[in-house]
Amino acid sequence: MLPTLADHAETARAVLPPEVWDYYAAGSGEETTLQEAERSWGSYRLRPRVLRDVSVVDLTTELLGVRVASPFVVAPMAFHGLAHADAECATIQGAGDAGCLTVVSTRASRTLEDIGGASTGPWWFQAYLMRDRGLTEALTQRAAAAGARAVVLTVDTPYVGRKNKVSGVRIAVPDDQYLVNLAQHLLPGAVGRESAEQDPSMTPDVIGRLAEISGLPVVVKGVLRGDEALRCVEAGAAGVVVSNHGGRQLDRAVPAAHVLPDVLDAVGGRVPVLVDGGIRGGTDALVALALGADAVLVGRPVLWALAAGGAPSVRVALDALADDLRHVLAVAGATRPADLDATMVVPAPR
């Protein structure tokens, strides 16, 4: 019997140093948003269709011209090297073997070139706008050259959220992992590191600039309001990710599950809308897709799988999610994500 997501999490907790587990698992503030993320998908109930031929279910999804085997996308997360010796190279290999898209973090533990070389499937590059904007531009150009198919601009981190429950714990990121993709572009010392901090003066004009510099479509991640999503699209965003950063930024921020309909209404189908936060199984994904999301991002479960067994375990985790979604789609009377619509989802009774 293959391990479940819960099995991977249990193994990861056993093998990771406590401070590394806490770094990955922590949320901001009192972790209200973190704790609500998974529960929020349970605030919906399903209205299945019946008397449909569901003998064959196809999860194939297209995102910005990239065809993938399922709508599960690996979310951007920092420092995979703390979880496994092969770091992002193992993650992207396992995800590619499962037919999934990966979003590679600016704070990766391996160079973009090494990650691109290890990839067995498509990937996007997650970017922060840094105080020295030339750093961001250089990274997006390198990502494009290494094979990235889009840039995912994170917009919800003008400053890093405070993790109260682990505020006294510091993880030691090895020198060969810390800012590995920025080292060649930085001035030495504190001045260089300061230039790589997030720029709190970011405005929508940067979306078009990054698209121009990289030659890639720019997807904006970290939006929780319909009016903000529309603002991003009007500034040139090719897609939007509804996300509260895994509960790691503003505590008490609304769960993505609750604001997804507002964002979808505002965007009106002009660009793909993805959603991130608390997706832990096929039913969660079905709810998101029925509401109108084009794909769902999965973060911590992939890291736990990476820690538990490297690339093979990442594939097992993503295959398990796909198998679960395939099953619940059929039971709900659908043969592909496009068959789902918002009439199949209602708020849970209070």
TrEMBL record:
Residues annotated as binding glyoxylate? 23, 128, 245, 248
PANTHER family to which the protein is assigned, alphabetical: 2-HYDROXYACID OXIDASE 1, S -2-HYDROXY-ACID OXIDASE-RELATED
The record ties this protein, via InterPro entries, to: Aldolase_TIM, Alpha-hydoxy_acid_DH_FMN, FMN-dep_DH, FMN_HAD, FMN_hydac_DH_AS
Similarity comment: Belongs to the FMN-dependent alpha-hydroxy acid dehydrogenase family.
Descriptive protein name: 4-hydroxymandelate oxidase
Identify the cofactor(s).
Answer: FMN
**Which keywords are on file for this protein?**
Flavoprotein, FMN, Oxidoreductase
**Which PROSITE patterns does this chain map to?**
FMN_HYDROXY_ACID_DH_1, FMN_HYDROXY_ACID_DH_2
- Active-site residues, record numbering mapped to chain: 245
A Pfam family that the UniProt record links to this protein? FMN_dh
Does the record carry Thylakoid as a key word?
no
Q: What positions does the entry give for FMN binding?
A: 76-78, 105, 126, 154, 221, 243, 276-280, 299-300
Listed Gene3D superfamilies: Aldolase class I
